[in-house]
UniProtKB/TrEMBL annotation:
Entry coiled-coil feature ranges: none
InterPro entries: PDZ_sf (IPR036034), Peptidase_S1_PA (IPR009003), Peptidase_S55 (IPR008763), SpoIVB (IPR014219)
Annotated organism of origin: Orenia marismortui
Keywords for the protein's UniProt record, in alphabetical order: Membrane, Transmembrane, Transmembrane helix
Name listed for the protein in its UniProt record: Stage IV sporulation protein B
Keyword Transmembrane helix: yes
NCBIfam families xref list: spore_IV_B
Source domain of life: Bacteria
Organismal lineage: Bacteria, Bacillati, Bacillota, Clostridia, Halanaerobiales
Keyword RNA-binding attached: no
Amino acid sequence: MKNYKRIIGLNCVLIVILILLMPQILIFLGLPNTCQIIEGNKASLKIHLPFNVSVESNNQGSLKVNGKNVSSQELNINLSKPLALQASNTGKYDLNFKLFGLIPLRKMVVNVLPEIKVIPGGQAIGVILKSDGIMVVRSSYVVDSNGEKHFPAKDAGIEVGDSLLRVNDIRIKNKYHLAKLINQYGKNGEKIRFKIRKQSGKVVFKDLLPIRNEDGHYMIGIYVDDGATGVGTMSFYDPNQGYYGALGHMITEANTQLKIDVGEGEVVRANISGINQSQKGLPGEKLGTFFNGQGVLGNIIRNNDFGIYGKLSIIPKHPYFNKAIPVSSPLEVTEGPAEIYTVLHGGSIERFKIVIEKVKRQYQPAEKGLIIRITDPNLLTQTGGIIQGMSGSPIVQKGKLVGAITHVFVNDSTRGYGILAQWMIKQSGLLEEKNIKKSIS
């Protein structure tokens, strides 16, 4: 009898633990706490759980689950089959999942977004980015005429990653301007008060006195940088408003690999003059030329984990797309054939075949949502696979923009990562513009 009670008690404990852990199990198996779908499009969640649950919603709207409208009345569904979601109106819908119609399992928020249409990019672009402030990239020292080392910046608390904004209330224009100001105040024997933005975003003030080095110049013991330039690829643009996204990854300072805060920047037309092929363990690159202030396409407003964004002043024509195409939601992207668009010679966009090998389950903005493989013999012959400068090349599948190339696998240049297009669209300002227009109409 005691053993029987013990078994019953143990089973009860296991059931309670299972119920408590069920939300985490459901996340692991594919039932997230939030997901995004596109207005009017059907999307499916593959969960693969061998039991039935009931689902209900307190929201009155157009959301359908497995083809049936969801309301306050419970709808029974089988989680061993894909969960089909569809809505004809934008908005936010709360779905409540229950086991046996009684035990709450999970609440899932379904965000129904407006359909966004853009023109896929592929254009070679020159990126000219000036930082907001002058970034400290390395600490050093100053050797005076007696051979003694001094650490004025370090002693004042100036660190690698700090952005120097002002010197004695004078805005620093660039690294050469900074050097001039330091030398000027040093000659006059004046202290410098720096206005500094730390990596955390906090603004602080630091005081120091420049030191005269053995060559007669006044220094403070740091190396700095004030921006970055390079060649990349346009990912998409809106032909009406000019919003664009490019690269699919952040621009970082070369020495520290830290984010460059945007002061000002431009994207300009670039000309690809050559290709260095990828080899095992050594990614190749596009050799491109561009000139500051020439062939300006637009500005740079934002630089973050998902690429660079701004507005175009010139809308380029595309040889493959004379009108905009829909952007796919993450749930619509599938493994299988796709195409990319990029420039290998001059400024001419070409189309190449790839395969999407894996689509990661991402329900919130994140990097590396796709694993892709280059299959086009022409591209493999010319480049050996994915090369530097190809970042941002748009990925199109079944007539929709699904993502952009971002990284190459160092040990296998035919394969690499991509970012899901929806995450880039969220950064571009297009969703806000669409919602404003919808509310006005």
